[in-house]
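Problem 12. The chain below contains 494 residues. Write out its predicted structure in token notation.
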Amino acid sequence: MWFLKSPVVGLLVILVAFSFTPAFNNAAFSQSTNPQRVDNSIAPSTGFADLIEQVSPAVVHVAISGKVSRSRQNVPEFNFPPGSPFEDFFEQFRNQQPRQDDEDESLRPLGIGSGFVISADGYIVTNHHVVNNADQIIVTLTDGEEFEAELQGSDSATDLALLKINSSESLPYVEWGDVEQSRVGDWVVAIGNPFGLGGSASTGIISAIGRDIRSGRYDDYLQIDAAINQGNSGGPLFNLAGDVIGINSAIYSPTGGSVGIGFSIPSSMAQRVIEQLKESGTVQRGWLGVQIQAIDSELAEGFGRENNSGALVASIIEDSPAEKAKFQAGDIVIEFDGKPIDEMRDLPRIVAETSAGDTVDVLIVRDGEEKTLSVLVDPYPEEGATLAKAEPNESQGDNVIGAEMVALNRQSREKYQVPDNAQGVLVVAVTEGSLAAQNGIIAGDLIQRVGRKAVSKPADVLGAVNEAIRNRRDTVVFLFNRAGSSSFVPFKLD
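Solution.
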């Protein structure tokens, strides 16, 4: 079972697959028929029985097993005096043991979860964490029939997987719904098949949309208060029209049981991923090639902005689409391919959803002015890229802000492990109680920009700070590179 501990209240975010030895149920169940789509939304006052009856046959139980190797150890060595009555006994016992390099390898149950059929020919959606590391996957329908499933593809970034079973008959299935039409407060029905005994249903409402639970860069969960319990990972979330608008994946809980805070992957994201897994078994995502950060109120003030929307570009990846499109550190991305970037985390998700090879317009704010850049999106690289190179500049020292700064040279680069392609002004010492110390600057920091200006020598830093003071600014934005990672930091001048 995988979980994250909340740093604030000590609760747990738990992926709700349940690892234990499942008992496969082979009892006879009544034969299911293809569920028909519900033409009219069901009023909650009439109950949910009709909806659940129609969609439950498409919800399946997923059990996995894997090969587990266990080395057998020899009995410890004991030395006995010649002629000891124990000598013959332990010699015989040792001869009966397998060699130390012998291994016992067998398929063992590893965990269970749920899934749902999306086509009559047997394609099944579940969570990546349900089937990860499985050597054998067994799918059980609500009528008790079992199938060994083939893994078509799995995507850890979105926690989605696609299975395929082969049946001589058409299978009951459900269809995707339009989650974009959903609102906070809408009724939903969560169904799982955690023990292979048939669908287990719970109802509730959508509590929030677009939740980030810090499980990955593409977090965009629906939060629901319908009970989701262990073993329900991979089960569908339905709207009242009987369409799938989410895949139940995680709960937020102090005990591991449901406390009414569950998370579902929205169908808008799932559909795109599942389609690619069906076509190729892999997922290809768009890539821009920038390191970004969120804009807080202090950074917004430093950049002269009235709000903190957008994604702030901290650095550019060498030979990336962003570098080719002339992006610059300090650009604030506010729109990508016509889609607004309200928060930093919106940008990676929207870029990832863009097809590689597409040329899109990106609206940025640079030096207080809006500007449109045209970028050719590349596929996400398998290996990491390096930060863009800059031309070297002359250097000199200064310590007026309470930091001793030097130009980069071979010796300083070696001493502070500054990459050859990184440029800026190196901090080598900070005076206790100084303005630099109060703002968290430490020796080894590389100052790359102050305000809207790139810096290459200590005088550049001093000049930009003095200019901000003359303009009666309370804050100026520094771009630091610390331990190879670049980020903008508000530098308080009072």
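Discussion. The first helix runs from residue 49 to 55. Students who got a different answer should revisit the alignment rule from Section 12.3.
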